[in-house]
Design brief:
The chain has 456 residues and is an alpha+beta fold. It contains 16 helices and twelve strands. The chain folds into three domains: 162 residues, no CATH class; 196 residues, Alpha-Beta Plaits (2-Layer Sandwich), CATH 3.30.70; 49 residues. Strands 1, 2, 3, 4, 5, 6, 7 and 8 form an eight-stranded mixed beta sheet that branches. A four-stranded antiparallel beta sheet has the order 9-10-11-12. The relative contact order is 0.06.
Amino acid sequence: MGVPLVILFFLVDLFYAPEHSRDFFLIRLLVIPVACFCQLLYRLNSIKNKHFHIPAFIFSFYLSAYSCYLVYFTGREISAYYAGISLILFGTLSLMPWTPLQMLVQVAILFFPYLIVVFTRDFSDIKWKYLFPHLSFLISTIFLSVINSLDSRRLRINESIASEKLRVENRNKAIIIEKKTREGIYLSRLSSHFPDQVVEQIRNGTFDISQRIRREVTIIFFDAKDSTERSERIDHKAYEEVLSDCYTNIARILKENGVTVSTYTGDGILGFTNAPHGVDQHRLVCLKAARSALNFCARKNSYYSEKWRKKFGIKIGINTGYATVGFFPSEAFGYYTVVGDAVNEASRFCSKASADSIAVTKDFIRAIGDEISFFNVEKIDTESNSMKGLEGERIDLFALFPRQRKTENQLICPLCGHSLIPTLDLKDTVLVKCSGKCHFSDIISREDLLKDGILN
């Protein structure tokens, strides 16, 4: 700011003191090196951090001294000094963050040259009637400057407090947003595993699943029959579509029945009951979920089999035993799952099950009681040593086949559950269409429709 000030005041000198313009210009020009010196001084860490007022004192003293000297040099009224000093006074006292002691020092620095000039002049030359009003004006300027400085300081303090509050609030908001984002991702992951009531309790903080526990659980394992062989023979899109649709709905059925969905194994699903919540009759809960899943797949079997290019079927193994429940390998990266021999046995039972059946042990059948009436039971002809990991152990396995409820004179749409209506007789076959809005249609043997009593 020194350069434009020097140029401006030099132009003023050309009009009001042309005879002294060159000398005044040299004196005014000193403001630039003084300002540079104060700036360099301010850059010292010891000055900047603890004694920032010292460069301001030096610069203010120079402005006051040279302003007073110019007034003295022109021979004008000494009271004219107030015009320049008032601007310096108001600016320095109002804008700098002074303490009361520093303000007193600043006032003394600004008026010290003035007092020297006053007491070195012939008092007879001073027009006292003008001096006193000017002094009063200077005192008023000092008073207003102090009031303005204190008010500015209060505003700066309030701004600093508000800025700090805003910074803390923004930091807290960022922490909350990050926490909520993590919780949202966390709950999104858990919502694909747990029944809705468990997720709600986790969200409300009334239930903690961070700890691993060991307890008795019932494990259910699903697998698609001949999935490896089908992946090599049919189009991958059809293969993926069947498994994706089937297992999405099975996972939904498991959650609706209160079964925790553990992991997806490519062509299978692992689930369990009695964890994280304790469940009464957890064997029955698992068995009912398995029966619902088999009934669902039966309704959509024609749709799946068409894409599968052979009869589609799922195999289920259920086993009850003790296992460790928790996040593996860790809460951040793993799945909420079960680990233990009972899990391996459920997988082995599943491998021995036939299509659309549930493989269970004799002890399991004894434990479920009257629920067995909903199933047809067959002994699985297998040797214990044919199951990997169970060599040398005698385990009697039984296959449970859900008893299908027949709907007289009605076909059910495998997509939406509405009835299928015969629409076109093709002699040996009949075209049927869904009565709902899914636009499903199929061609069914006339003989089958007559056998089921759908056609007369």
